[in-house]
Specification:
homodimer; alpha/beta; 5-stranded parallel β-sheet; 7 helices; 34% helix
Amino acid sequence: MDPGQHRAVCLVSGGMDSAVTLAEARAAGFETYALSFDYGQRMEIELEAARRVATGLGAREHRVVHLDLAALGGSALTEPPAGANKTSSLEVPKDRDVAAIGAGVPATYVPARNTVFLAVALGWAETLGARDLFIGVNAVDYSGYPDCRPAFLESFENLARFATAAGTERGESFHVHAPLMERTKADIVRRAAELGVDLGVTHTCYDPVHTPRGVLACGRCDACKLRLKGFAEVGETDPVPYQTTNTTP
Amino acid sequence: MDPGQHRAVCLVSGGMDSAVTLAEARAAGFETYALSFDYGQRMEIELEAARRVATGLGAREHRVVHLDLAALGGSALTEPPAGANKTSSLEVPKDRDVAAIGAGVPATYVPARNTVFLAVALGWAETLGARDLFIGVNAVDYSGYPDCRPAFLESFENLARFATAAGTERGESFHVHAPLMERTKADIVRRAAELGVDLGVTHTCYDPVHTPRGVLACGRCDACKLRLKGFAEVGETDPVPYQTTNTTP
């Protein structure tokens, strides 16, 4: 680490937003520590993408914390997929109009997920002596999750002062950076190019399809539709392979 | 569930304080949902105690969430014990004077642990439709952890409003109950008797000793010394077996 360089813990899901967020942390001069969660996602593919992102963007370390949120139920992202042993009552929404995404909390909402992720990031930050956390949440082209808004992040910064030895004993404060908060998906696609982020290694789809040609993004879930909208607005083609990219209903 | 009975998520470590806290939740009329964590503790014995406590006190459900905080390092409670493959630089403090416990953050502090635990409890609460969380933290005979204080719990309640669909969409608030916050260990021993809590099934020791006679509490770590002080003040004998109960240095 350069003398004077500060450490930052960056939440990395393996998606486009977290990849650009990690790149923003590096561009801001931080030594980055990437943190991912194995929380009973439907697919290991997200973690593989997170590993590629962390390595590709020069994270000093990448840790994967196993956290069995599936044990608590309540989300289509942690329920077994339809066709598995158990029938899921919570299906990943498909073919929703992009304008409708964000109106109301969808079935893919994992209760308190970002709270849990930031809490663990805070713990690691305290161990590392880091005072900066980065999270790739976005309040513009977002999916309607309550824990992706500025008021949530401010209340977490407030909590961090009382939750840590650094805050209570030494009066230090933690900063939760959300550099994509006000960016559109198109902005994020452009910013990825500026920062040299290879979006081809990222994974966004909530419901990917395994085929003999490899894994394909579905092109129909909320996450795919928002991502495709971003590329379409910039006039670029997403390097990630899709089953379908027909975004009209 | 009785009509009108509310659900509460209760953090249950298996120790004396969380057992009495669970009993307080039941006595207050809640249907209780016990939540424990397998977070890389040195001993499985804590989880066994948590299971006995949850069953004995009539929890409607008991879930154990695997959370690999040991991956982040930084605490004597999640470091491998001395004598294991790797030498731990963080030893459980022993034979400290009770008056000195609480002055400063000890090596057994797991960074942001209660923040993480409450965040997961919040997620389960949202799934269950519960708005009440119970945690057995204590600011009187406590171990110096920053996340055991009223200001921490208030900042968490504030966070919960912004972190959840219940809070942001329906304006509902969550209440973090800490019924033992102002109680001494002696109060807690007395309250256990009043509520019918069998303290013999609980486990408190940070560094228990496995013997042919079974597991013995060390009697020398901060947690044992505070617990023994509580029993001594009430003039009772702790039903849990100890290696030593000589609390004078």
